[in-house]
Design a protein that fits this description.
With 79 residues, the protein is an alpha+beta fold. Helix content is 43%, strand content 23%.
Amino acid sequence: MTENKEVIEVLAQRLTPTVKKVLSNGVEAEKIKVILEFDGYREYRRSRVRRAIRHLGGRVVRELPLINALAVEIPASGL
């Protein structure tokens, strides 16, 4: 469970100011679509990242290997 908490904190740090603003305004979107960028190929391929996304109620929609990123659909409440 601690591993998930660490990954969740990392994901929260990666939110753009625009997404943070939308979330702080209390938008009632059931799920929002975001792109999570990572520093390297290995980082976004790790299973702990995917487990944390699932733990938050989200799902990986697509891998974006050219930019070391994941397209994710996640409940706004999970961010």
